[in-house]
Design goal:
This protein has about 250 residues and is α/β, with parallel strands linked by helices. It has helices at about 10-15, 25-35, 55-65, 80-90, 115-130, 145-150, 165, 170-190, 205-215, 225-235, 235-245; strands at about 5-10, 40-45, 70-75, 95, 135-140, 155-160, 195-200, 220.
């Protein structure tokens, strides 16, 4: 089955936040994306609210519940207490935990599963007690011991950090090498009992090769590249383009 597409709304929110105005509407563009066949919406509410604001979460939850009940809401972030309270209040279908420093510009590395085992054990257990799926951000290294720890702490999935793969857009040979490596990592993750998501700097151009290397890829979460394309093609057509790149029939 082709990977599902979750549209990350952060870049839209960042554009809105340049002015003290309600447009572009994060919720309305989310509605267009879901109507065009996106399987879900992703947000990353950072402590400084520099893109997604905490006040965006309830309208997005209401949009999905009221108009697209088959879609999923994915909230990602570092598991500090304020973030966990947002999760408890808005009950996303999936929580993606990332090891970000609150001040960094964007997610750029996966968890150190050995070092962070006890933190993740505690936090994942708290989230799982709510009945929510948990995904952990992971580097693209086929480290069986590390991925086994991710499973042992209770995660359902990992999200492969694909930033380096997306970053070698001008180096086809390196792209192939990294896609092969991500495929190896995904195979190990599946073998230890984890589902596999992927995200970061994925585009219509590089998605097909990644999907070919990870035939059981569950979901891709895409924001920057998708938003950039939406400026050119419109949100609905962009979602269809990305769905086709995932291997979906549109």
């Amino acid at each position: 089955m082709p990977a599902k597409l979750s549209v990350n709304l952060n870049a839209i929110a960042m554009l809105r936040n340049r002015r003290d105005l309600p447009w572009p509407s994060v919720t309305n563009l989310g509605r267009i994306a879901l109507a065009a066949g996106a399987s879900g919406l992703t947000v990353h509410p950072r402590p400084d609210q520099r893109h997604i604001r905490f006040s965006d979460l309830q309208p997005i939850r209401a949009l999905i519940d009221g108009e697209f009940p088959q879609a999923e809401f994915n909230i990602e972030g570092f598991p500090q207490e304020d973030f966990l309270r947002l999760v408890e209040e808005h009950r996303p279908d999936q929580v993606t935990l990332v090891p970000d420093d609150p001040a960094q510009a964007t997610s750029d590395h996966g968890w150190d599963f050995r070092k962070d085992r006890e933190l993740l054990l505690r936090v994942v257990g708290r989230i799982k007690a709510l009945g929510l799926r948990v995904s952990l951000f992971a580097d693209g290294e086929p480290d069986r011991e590390a991925l086994s720890i991710a499973r042992e702490v209770g995660a359902d999935r990992i999200e492969l950090y694909t930033g380096p793969y997306g970053g070698c857009h001008a180096d086809p040979a390196e792209a192939v090498r990294l896609a092969d490596r991500l495929g190896e990592t995904a195979a190990v993750a599946l073998d230890v009992g984890l589902g596999v998501n992927a995200g970061h700097d994925l585009t219509v151009a590089n998605l097909p090769m990644l999907a070919a290397r990870i035939p059981h890829l569950a979901e891709v979460s895409i924001g920057h590249g998708l938003t950039a394309d939406a400026l050119e093609y419109g949100m609905a057509e962009t979602v269809r383009r990305f769905r086709r790149a995932c291997g979906q029939t549109v």
